[in-house]
Amino acid sequence: VPDSQYGLYAWPCAVVLAQYVWVHRRSLPGRRVLEIGAGVSLPGVVAARCGAQVTLSDSEELPRCLQSCRRSCLLNRLPHVPVLGLTWGRVSPELLSLAPVDIILGSDVFFDPKDFEDVLTTIYFLLEKNPHAQFWTTYQVRSADWSIEALLCKWNLKNTHVPLHSFGADKEHLASSSLPGRHTIEMMIISLAQSDGT
């Protein structure tokens, strides 16, 4: 691992999600976007450069990651993008006072099973406040035993798989990594399930 705080490295999931954002750039001007677990903030920075109203966030317990978000904004001439400390699973004043959102971005936030429910609790809270919003997320397949399906049902959320080839992210230079190990990247869009159980 390059750093003990994972958010200080641009993982392949961030590159893939940034590609999805880029492919949908014409729909972004004026849209309100929140990136959670932003780290170096690649998807959020791309969204902001494409005209979205972006807020970046990472755990309030990881000040170096929050500083990384701010540094990415400055390096990309985006000094006015807000950076918030939002910790998954915690209902904080920052979360409660968050402005409405249309799109939530999260790259590789499903990396540790102990955090899966905290991530989805936060997403559920945001989607309940913003019922038409979507959570665009990419994740690295690290174990066939790890799944969020039961948690999606528990929190009344549904997911739609997005094939990487559908937005040109199946290219080796996008979804690969020089780090050792398996680097299969997947993408899905999570939204509120309808009350009829769909």
UniProtKB/TrEMBL annotation:
Any Pfam family hit:
Methyltransf_16
What are the entry keywords?
A: Methyltransferase, S-adenosyl-L-methionine, Transferase
Recall the GO molecular function terms of this protein's record: methyltransferase activity
- GO biological process, alphabetically ordered: methylation
Could you name the Gene Ontology cellular component terms for this entry? cytoplasm; nucleus
Family matches, as PANTHER family = HEPATOCELLULAR CARCINOMA-ASSOCIATED ANTIGEN, HISTONE-ARGININE METHYLTRANSFERASE METTL23
Family according to the record? Belongs to the methyltransferase superfamily. METTL23 family.
Protein's recorded name: MET23 protein
* Species of the source: Sclerurus mexicanus
